[in-house]
Design goal:
By secondary structure, this protein is α/β, with parallel strands linked by helices. The protein is 45% helix and 11% strand. Helix 1 runs parallel beside helix 7 and helix 6 packs parallel to helix 7. The protein binds zinc ion.
């Protein structure tokens, strides 16, 4: 199983994703941005953060966005035993199910760190492993709003998956860049959909 960075298609659909939340300041700001354009996003949440902000997890889900599995404690999975990897994945999905009533169906490995054992576990559990096409934007390093915006805009085409972060640190640059990006890309006729919706489009 390969990591999925984009889904080839002709429709003007893209999936914008956020890792490491939920965060009480940045996640609600992102919800406002997507609500304003009627778009949906995908949030790859960390178990420990979800536990701190349970209501926010529900709010994200109730507004029609997707919650993806990003492990429970955000470890380097290649350094763990198979049993520990499985535990990280299942503790996350059990908590998501407890909070919103259904398990996540897409997975992104922390630090994009994975090995054959991780691939095997994800394959058995039926999780597609989700990457992104705008790694060059490096929003997690806070390289400036303009850099994040331009590098992400360059990576947009039909079926792109884009990565940003709403947890673990000051994410105001990411929020500002996404606000600009959603405005620009929306005016080009793109629609913002969840990763699962993008994958369905491919299968269908
Ligand atoms: Zn992460």
């Amino acid at each position: 199983m390969a990591i999925i960075h984009e889904v080839p298609m002709r429709e003007k659909l893209i999936a914008i994703t956020f890792d490491d939340g939920p965060h009480p300041i940045y996640t609600p700001q992102l919800l406002e941005i997507f609500n304003a354009v009627g778009g949906k996003a995908t949030f790859f949440m960390v178990g420990e953060e979800m536990k701190k902000h349970r209501d926010l997890v529900k709010k994200v889900f109730d507004e029609g966005h997707e919650i993806g599995n990003h492990t429970y404690t955000h470890p380097h999975l290649s350094k763990l035993s198979m049993e520990q990897c499985l535990d990280e994945i299942e503790r996350n999905e059990n908590l998501v199910e407890e909070l919103v009533g259904q398990k996540p169906v897409v997975f992104r490995p922390p630090y994009f760190d994975y090995n054959d054992e991780v691939i095997g576990i994800l394959g058995e559990k039926g999780y597609p492993m989700i990457g992104a096409v705008n790694g060059e934007a490096r929003d997690w390093e806070q390289p400036g709003v303009d850099h994040i915006y331009k590098a992400s805009l360059d990576a947009v085409k039909e079926g792109s998956i884009l990565i940003f972060h709403d947890g673990y640190g000051d994410r105001s640059q990411s929020v500002d860049a996404v606000r600009k990006l959603v405005h620009e890309v929306g005016s080009q006729g793109y629609q913002f959909v969840t990763v699962s919706r993008l994958l369905e489009e491919f299968k269908g």
